[in-house]
Amino acid sequence: MGTRIVDSADVSPEATVGEDSSVWHLAQVREGAVLGRACVIGRGAYIGTGVRLGDHCKVQNYALVYEPAELGEGVFVGPAAVLTNDTFPRAINPDGSLKSASDWDAVGVTVGRGASIGARAVCVAPVRVGEWATVAAGAVVTRDVPAHALVVGVPARQVGWVGRAGHPLEQTTTPGEWRCPSTGELYHENHGTLTPEGDQR
Fold it and tell me: Is 148's pLDDT higher than 90?
């Protein structure tokens, strides 16, 4: 397949773009950013300085991923979603002077393997979205999201669990057991965490 960077994309020569990745029209990939293998960066998307993406990530049109975010393998970031990096944003200091890079400490969003951030969702750093979790479209995440959790709303709250296929899980008749309606895969809940059957991690 080969790596594809269209002419209108702005990719720093100091960025690393993995084999078979695509960077589409008007996207910007900043200095020191690292894209894994077979990533897709959509039209108008922004990947900040030093951001790291695992293999097979998809960052959809006009999504903004600010440094120092880290995305695991297979992460989906929906259209116009934002991963922030400033806990106390201000354009100026208390004395009225313009803030510079040395006047604040960037904090990042971490997204675990296989997780999805829905369209126009906002993750307010510093937060971690666990593996295979789903943040619903338009949600605002202000605290960590457990692995496999489905969170919705403003601020985001957990309303269920999702499997690796992305479908909401259905509770079986066995206490603490959940099933994916798409794949039939079973999951077990224990003290607020969810583990796929047979997963020893």
Answer: yes
Average pLDDT score over residue span 185-190? 95
Per-residue tokens: 116: 């999805």
Phi, psi of 56, deg, nearest 5: 60, 30
Q: Are residues 12 and 25 in the same domain?
A: yes
pLDDT category, 200, cuts 50, 70, 90? Answer: very low
* Residue 112 tokens, joined: 């675990």
Residues 170 and 158 in one domain: no
Q: How far apart are the first and last CA of the chain?
A: 34
Asked whether residue 47 falls in the same domain as residue 70, the answer is yes
- Sign of the torsion angle spanned by Cα atoms 143, 147, 151, 157: negative
The alpha carbon torsion through 53, 131, 40, 29 (nearest 10 deg) reads -30
Residue 171 domain boundaries: 164-201
What are residue 173's DSSP bridge partners? none
Query: Is 102 in the same domain as 200?
Result: no
Residues 116 and 198 in one domain: no
Domain match, 157 and 168 both? no
Q: Please check whether residues 57 and 82 belong to one and the same domain.
A: yes
User: Is residue 85's pLDDT more than 50?
Assistant: yes
Asked if residue 126 lies in contact with residue 106, where contact means CB atoms within 8 angstroms, the answer is no
